[in-house]
């Protein structure tokens, strides 16, 4: 079990929060736009008492992490406990052994793909398969690393949620856990449909090949054609095909879960900023005492610190997500220039490409919303009247306008709305390069008429 401290995110100025210090502030109770301390509770009604077993991010993430652990990811212990203090990471538990066994299987498939590239040459299809298994292998290792830090991160997050509940109202009638379940259900159903379409397209090709050969074992033809990197080295048997297909399914889930996780964690962090912003919008144009602004600035600083701490742990996952999605979008566009035989394959290609685009866009917009919400206090601070302007407002405004609060990809880029256009431009640029360098390969693909030919 890893020990951690939740004092990384400090409360800042404690004395300035108390109304007893008003005699030291320049505050005129005769102003008509002044909100006196006794009115603050009515101006911003707080939420109900915080219950970590139902209201925390730990509770909202519980079913999602349990789902991930069914596929060998996120091996954290204590997920079913009522609060984050029970979370722990241990190398000696069945979840770790399950996750490591899947990593070993993925590693074997990655090595066999490398051998195939070396012995039979490189093309876009072989390279795409290799990249898929390599990135899922790296992703699985990254989530084990995140699981090691997850208990400390959740303790810090839960501490902030507990403090915010006493001051901020709930911004949505739908709980965070309910929204998480809805998003997870939609993404997983679409991912299941995408993988089912891929299996159906592969089965269609295997059926055509088996018909040409007069082979009654369609399943054997399917497994051999889908995993040539294995069955060119080993003899085929049904149990081997099932094991490899299982690893393939787990890898596919891992690929989809990366984007799902980033969407959910971005939603949770954005909600925290929205709570602060909703309180600020309610006092827009009013002259608040200095202690009130000190408290608001301290809360904003807590969120900024939490964002940086979160980014420290998941920036590698962010970079991997954008790299994988960008690569596969370029490959899908490249494959679109090749003739696609059969209506089943055309439907699969269109569905897969559309799902990939939608998932990438959703990740980008949800992650960018953190940066958007962090900038919203600026107009409110600009509108503070001269009678209510003080040092705390000035410090708050300086931090909002100069601090870049956002998730990053290993500090290489920050996720903002402008990044979406940058990624789109990058896709167009690299697609033109790929088309030029793969013109010969495209001619070879057009000449393929044998359904049994493995590419």
UniProtKB/TrEMBL annotation:
Question: What's this protein's family per the entry?
Answer: Belongs to the insect chemoreceptor superfamily. Gustatory receptor (GR) family. Gr5a subfamily.
Where are the residues of the annotated region Disordered?
Answer: 1-25
Gene Ontology biological process terms in this record: sensory perception of sweet taste; signal transduction
Q: Which organism is it from?
A: Mycetomoellerius zeteki
Query: Which InterPro entries is this protein grouped with?
Result: Gustatory_rcpt
- Listed transmembrane segments: 96-118, 130-155, 176-193, 247-269, 317-337
Subcellular localization is given as: Cell membrane
Superkingdom of this protein's organism: Eukaryota
Query: By what name is this protein known?
Result: Gustatory receptor
Topology of this chain in the membrane = Multi-pass membrane protein
């Amino acid at each position: 079990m890893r020990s951690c401290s939740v004092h990384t995110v400090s409360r800042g100025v404690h004395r300035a929060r108390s109304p007893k210090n008003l005699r030291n502030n320049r505050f005129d109770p005769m102003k008509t736009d002044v909100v006196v301390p006794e009115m603050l509770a009515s101006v911003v009604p707080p939420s109900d008492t915080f219950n970590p077993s139902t209201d925390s991010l730990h509770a909202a993430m519980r079913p999602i992490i349990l789902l991930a652990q069914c596929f060998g990811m996120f091996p954290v212990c204590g997920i079913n406990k009522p609060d984050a203090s029970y979370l722990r990471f241990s190398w000696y538990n069945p979840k770790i052994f399950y996750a490591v066994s899947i990593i070993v299987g993925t590693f074997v498939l990655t090595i066999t793909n490398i051998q195939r590239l070396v012995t039979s040459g490189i093309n876009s299809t072989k390279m795409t398969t290799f990249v898929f298994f390599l990135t899922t292998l790296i992703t699985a290792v990254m989530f084990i690393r995140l699981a090691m830090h997850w208990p400390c991160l959740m303790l810090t997050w839960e501490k902030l949620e507990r403090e915010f509940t006493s001051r901020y109202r709930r911004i949505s009638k739908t709980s965070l856990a309910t929204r998480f379940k809805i998003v997870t259900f939609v993404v997983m159903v679409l991912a299941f449909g995408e993988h089912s379409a891929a299996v159906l397209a592969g089965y269609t090709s295997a059926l055509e090949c088996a018909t040409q050969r007069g082979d009654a074992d369609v399943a054997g033809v399917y497994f051999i054609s889908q995993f040539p990197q294995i069955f060119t080295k080993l003899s085929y048997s049904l149990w081997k095909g099932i094991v490899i297909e299982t690893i393939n399914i787990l890898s596919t889930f891992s690929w989809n879960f990366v984007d799902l996780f980033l969407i959910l964690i971005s939603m949770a962090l954005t909600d925290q900023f929205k709570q602060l912003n909703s309180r600020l919008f309610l006092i827009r144009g009013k002259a608040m005492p200095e202690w009130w602004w000190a408290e608001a600035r301290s809360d904003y600083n807590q969120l900024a610190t939490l964002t940086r701490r979160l980014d420290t742990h998941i920036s590698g996952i962010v970079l991997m997500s954008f790299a994988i999605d960008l690569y596969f979008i370029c490959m899908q566009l490249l494959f679109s220039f090749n003739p696609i035989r059969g209506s089943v394959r055309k439907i699969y290609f269109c569905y897969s490409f559309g799902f990939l685009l939608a998932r990438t866009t959703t990740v980008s917009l949800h992650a960018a919303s953190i940066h958007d919400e962090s900038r919203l206090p600026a107009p409110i601070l600009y509108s503070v009247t001269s009678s209510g302007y003080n040092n705390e407002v000035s410090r708050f405004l300086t931090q909002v306008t100069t601090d870049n609060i956002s998730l990053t990809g290993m500090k290489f880029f920050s996720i903002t709305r402008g990044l979406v256009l940058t990624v789109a431009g990058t896709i167009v640029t690299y697609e033109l390069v790929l088309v030029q360098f793969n013109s010969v390969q495209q001619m070879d693909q057009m000449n393929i008429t044998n359904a049994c030919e493995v590419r």
